[in-house]
Amino acid sequence: MDNAIELSNELREYIFESSEPVHPVLRRVIEQTQAMTERSMQVTPEQSIFLRAMVRLVKPQRILEIGTFTGLSSLVMASALPAGGRITCLDVSEEFTAIARQAWGEAGVADKIELILGPALETIVSLQGPYDMVFIDADKGNLQAYVEAVLPMLPSGGVVMVDNTLWRQLVVTDDPTPSTVTIQKFNAWLKDHPDFDVEMIGIADGLTLAIRR
Ligand SMILES: C[S@@+](CC[C@H](N)C(=O)[O-])C[C@H]1O[C@@H](n2cnc3c(N)ncnc32)[C@H](O)[C@@H]1O
C-alpha cells in the first residue's frame, strides 16, 4: 500500500483547519502536554477530531471515559455533546487531571463533566449507567475487565471505543512481549464477543469500536 499517510505536524494543523473549529484551550492542552515527559499518553490531534465526530454521530446522552490524563479527549467530546449530555471521567491521577479540570473550566464545559478519582475498576462498580458511549484509555492490562464491567450499563447501539489496540504496530510482531500478548489476546477476545459488532480503526495507535448488538 502506498496510499497511507504518516501525519506531520503540518498535516495535523491542516486537519484542524479543515474541520469545525476547536476551542483555543484544546490547542493549549496539546502544547502543554506535549512539553511533559508523559506526552505519549495523550490522544493524537487527529484522533481527537475522530472522537468528536463519533460524538456528533452517536449523540450520546452519557459518556464514560476511563483514563482522562490532561483532558484532551474529554474536552473534545464535551464540545460535541447534545443538549443535556454529560461525561463521567475516571482517573487515578490528581496531578494530571488538575490540568484537565482547569481546561474544562476555561473551555466552559466543566458543568458537563464529573471527575471521579480512584482505580477505575473499583469506581465502575459504583456507577449507575446507562452510558451510550464509553472511551477506554487507561491501564492496558485491564482492557477486558473494563469491557466486562461496562457491558451491563451499555444499551443496544451503545459503543465502546478502546484506544491503543495496534500497540505501536507490535500486534503483528513475530516476537511479542507479554504486554503485546495482552493486547493481542484482548483484540481476539473482543472480536469474538457475542454481544458486539467490532470494527478496528487504523487511526493513531489503533482505535477499536465495539458496538453493542
Ligand atoms: C493514556 S492516558 C489517557 C489519555 C487521555 N484520554 C487524553 O485524551 O489525553 C491514561 C490515563 O489513565 C490513568 N490510569 C492509569 N491506570 C488507571 C486506573 N487503574 N484507573 C483509572 N485511571 C488510570 C492514568 O493516570 C492516565 O491519566
Describe this structure in words.
This protein is α/β, with parallel strands linked by helices and 213 residues long. It has a domain at 9-157: Vaccinia Virus protein VP39 (Rossmann fold, 3-Layer(aba) Sandwich), CATH 3.40.50. It is 38% helix and 17% strand. The chain has eight helices and seven strands, in the order αααβαβαβαβαβαββ. It has helices at residues 9-17, 24-34, 45-58, 72-78, 94-107, 120-124, 143-150, 178-191, and strands at residues 62-66, 86-91, 113-117, 133-136, 159-163, 196-201, 207-212. It has a seven-stranded mixed β-sheet with strand order 3-2-1-4-5-7-6, sandwiched between helices. Helix 5 (94-107) links the parallel strand 2 (86-91) and strand 3 (113-117). Helix 2 (24-34) runs antiparallel to helix 5 and helix 3 packs parallel to helix 4 (72-78). The longest helix is centred in the N-terminal third of the chain and has 14 residues, at 45-58. The two termini are 33 Å apart. The mean pLDDT is 96. The site of S-adenosylmethionine has 19 residues, from helix 4 and strand 2.
